[in-house]
Amino acid sequence: MEQRVVLITGAGRGVGRCMAETFARAGDALIIADIVLARAEETAAMVAGSGAGAIAVQVDVGAGPAVAKMVAEGIARFGRLDVLINAAGSYGKAFRATHETPDEEWDSVLDSNLKGSFLCAKYVIPHMMRNKGGRIINFASNAGRSSSPLLGATYTSAKTGIIGLTRHLAVEYAPYNILVNTIAPGPLRSDRVSDLIDERMMADLATRIPLGRLGEFQDVADVVFFMASDSARYMTGAILDVNGGFVLA
Ligand SMILES: NC(=O)c1ccc[n+]([C@@H]2O[C@H](COP(=O)([O-])OP(=O)(O)OC[C@H]3O[C@@H](n4cnc5c(N)ncnc54)[C@H](O)[C@@H]3O)[C@@H](O)[C@H]2O)c1
Questions:
Q1: Residue 34 CB–ligand 1 contact under 6 Å
Q2: How far apart are CA 9 and CA 101, in angstroms?
Q3: Does residue 140 belong to any structural domain of this protein?
């Protein structure tokens, strides 16, 4: 496979970091973006020995000027952009009722997930149009396929919105050979989930997943890798559930 330039947001930890390692192993060049620069730099250091080069960039994906700057830095370093993976996103407090949710939580969850996916697409698409093609892979969640009692209305709404954004972009940019798809992971064994629920709740959750366990980062990264590959050349506007059968949408 030809070497690609891959921009991954939220690549400072978790799934984003695992995807950076996966694409680097395949020989790709990486723009590793995160709101926490130290995390992005740590990921860049981890992949330094493989791939075709990596830069770490600090960005708040919910802020247009910062996103424009991130894309400009990537283009300045690598000259092109083939794949955008929108994995960044925050979340609110666990099990919070909608009527008790602060307005600010709505703004931060929607901005970092939905607006961030929109802004990154907005600034990357002109470069993909110039290249006569590209791939955009968004991150929804089982929450966007159903609803999330754990992360509430903010997260459910943000992830459902990302599915709508994916469908719209897929149709709008198909004539430019820009393929836009969404992965919808289920609960993963991750810092994020262990920040939110304790070991006992996690074990209980696993019993409710037909495949009997939470997902691993690599379970998700491998599917994203496929979505960015030539094998997925006829797929656009799709939502791929990677959740062990937890939510059948
Ligand atoms: N972990 C799970 O169980 C799970 C399940 C379903 C979907 N997802 C989705 O997968 C993606 C990755 O999940 P994860 O578990 O690796 O998350 P994570 O919380 O471990 O990592 C997310 C990264 O995004 C960064 N980030 C947050 N807000 C940002 C912003 N505004 N701008 C730039 N970077 C920002 C954080 O600093 C962090 O490094 C997310 O979109 C998440 O919603 C995760």
A1: yes
A2: 26
A3: yes
